[in-house]
Every structure is written in structure tokens, then in C-alpha cells.
Input
Amino acid sequence: MEKFVYLNNLYDCYRELLTDKQKMYFEDYYFNNLSLSEVAENYKVSRNAVHNQLKIIEDKLKEFEDELHLLNRKKRIIKLLEGKVEDKLLEEVKSLL
Output
């Protein structure tokens, strides 16, 4: 579960750096809860091709974070603001990040 949340957070930060096809595979598998076989069937590719693409996507997302640190910065900003600003303002800041 922790990996799932981490990858979804990375995706929120870096999705625009992925190809449209990569976005579709990721969203179908992680957001729409489709199996590898279902994703493969939808795109007329092998199950192994989907598995390989998801691994490539996961690696790319992690590489982006290693280089850019956007998710880490986002978490640090939220932590700094917690307890120091009103909840409404904190939610607005979170939505911007």
C-alpha cells in the first residue's frame, strides 16, 4: 500500500513528463484498478508489455524525483505550514502544490 501511495504522489508531480501512452497505462492500472491482463486487452498488447511499461514508468517517476525533488519539497512545505496557518489556508496551499 505504501508503494501505491508513493507512486500516486509521484505521478501527481510528474505526470506531464510522461507520454500519453504511459499515462493511460499508469491510470488504468493504478487509478482504475485494472489488472495487467485487462490493460493489455484494452490496448491490444501482451501482458508482459504492460508489465514492462509499468516498470519503466515507475523507474522514470523515481528518477524524476531523484533529480527534481518536487514531492519532497511539497511535503516539507506542508510540514512547515502545519499548525502555523489556518486549516483553510493550508488546504489552499496543498491544492496549489
Q: What stands out?
A: The mean pLDDT is 92.
